[in-house]
Amino acid sequence: MPASCPAAPLVPGSPFFHYADGHLMAEGLALADLARQHGTPLFVYSQAALLDALAAYQRGLAGRDTLICYAMKANSTLGLLQTLVQAGCGLDIVSGGELVRALRSGVDPGHIVFSGVGKSRLEMRQALQAGIGCFNVESLAELEVLNHEALALGRQAPVSLRVNPDVDARTHPYISTGLKANKFGIAHEQALAAYRRAAALPGLRVLGIDCHIGSQITDSAPYLDALERVLDLVQALEQEGIALEHIDLGGGLGITYLDETPPAADRLLAQVLQRLDARGCRHRLLLEPGRSLVGNAGVCLTEVLYQKPGAEKNFLIIDAAMNDLPRPALYQAYHAIVPLQLDTDATPVQYEVVGPVCESGDWIGRERTLAVRTGDWLAVCSAGAYCMSMASNYNSRGRAAEVLVAGQSAQLIRQRENPDDSLGLEPPLGF
Ligand SMILES: *Cc1c(COP(=O)(O)O)cnc(C)c1O
């Protein structure tokens, strides 16, 4: 980098997005070139970053009978699914729409697990007909309905019960889905009875047990606590003659958005496998990582539209908004925001970085010091997970385009939506 360039800001979490001579790169390509070619807002993913994140899981599981089922709700764009499936991933789905996408990706249907508290009968039938690997069932009522649908199709549904390990909230207050008080899973105390019922239903084949205790977890302790609770149940079930084939520990491993230091997947798995071995447990291990595979493999490129100095705050108005990047509005989430080109002459100013949508909640970053000018491009970092898959058309904004980079190559993996795409679904009024 020339000596005159200001210090390059850090791009959290991924070495695959880095500055070279003051230009932010994705692998071997300058992001400004992609912004120029495809327009903004534009999501850009690094294939090497995706495969690197997956490799940490694969290293951690080497030599074991396992299946990594990418939780595709984190980002379900086909090009990313194909990348992960071709590298050996199965998929964790939560809807019939995700089933269609999963099948399109070329995944072996036997490597699909179906999670979620509210599967409809239609979704169950579609998944049974596709021959998916396992239904992760979340309630007694769902067991009965699935049994009924499977028998009607002359099949047996492979099932796992999602148990709620009720990991102590006081020691781990950041866990959001593994507690008694939420809608997910079957309570630990009811799990034995639920398994007895499942084993008695002729349309079901009891295959496994699963849990998923939350998301953006940055410590291994809650995983290990949940694992112990699950293993207690596995043991109790075996004493009753209900033998399981697999244990599915769900997803939830966090990523670095700012300065979080989650355990690396391989280190976490070393601890998990040690606990399994200590209890003589040789079950097949399933995992359902989402965010930790894709979150830091993507950025969202955006253009500075206006600088708007205010009495109390300076606003930086960008062309990406809450419909593209919903996490700040939904969860008060932090995404780092960095310039694509380091500018020595622009004055650093503290901004509220906001989008064009007509909502005060439409902010992307608060109190960010940036040296930028109108027309400059910025990258909103760590935007690979729960951004594009949660994007909407609010304010009749078309969803952004997406590009996948591999080395020096780039491919458009999703076109920018235009107004005709959604208007085509709306016939003109006929009366
Ligand atoms: C959302 C979800 C995941 C993935 O969670 P991440 O935090 O993205 O890893 C896995 N399993 C289930 C059941 C989920 O609902």
CATH superfamily of the largest domain: Alanine racemase
Largest beta sheet, briefly? 9 strands, mixed
- N- to C-terminal distance: 65 Å
State the helical fraction.
Answer: 25-40%
Indicate the low-confidence ranges by residue numbers: none
Total discrete domains:
2
Tell me, what's the shape? globular
- pLDDT averaged residue by residue: 94
Text of the CATH class of the largest domain: Alpha Beta
What is the structural class?
Answer: alpha/beta
Could you tell me which ligands this complex binds, including any ions or cofactors? pyridoxal-5'-phosphate
Quick rundown:
This protein has 431 residues and is of the alpha/beta class.
How would you sum up this structure, described in words?
- The chain is an alpha/beta fold and 431 residues long.
- The chain has 2 domains: 17-46 and 295-423, Lyase, Ornithine Decarboxylase, Chain A, domain 1, CATH 2.40.37.10; 115-289, TIM Barrel, CATH 3.20.20.
- Helix content is 28%, strand content 25%.
- The chain contains 12 helices and 21 strands.
- Strands 4, 14, 15, 16, 17, 18, 19, 20 and 21 form a 9-stranded mixed sheet that branches.
- The model has no long low-confidence stretch (mean pLDDT 94).
- The structure holds pyridoxal-5'-phosphate.
- Pyridoxal-5'-phosphate (PLP) binds at residues 71, 73-74, 92, 115, 212, 215, 250-253, 288-292.
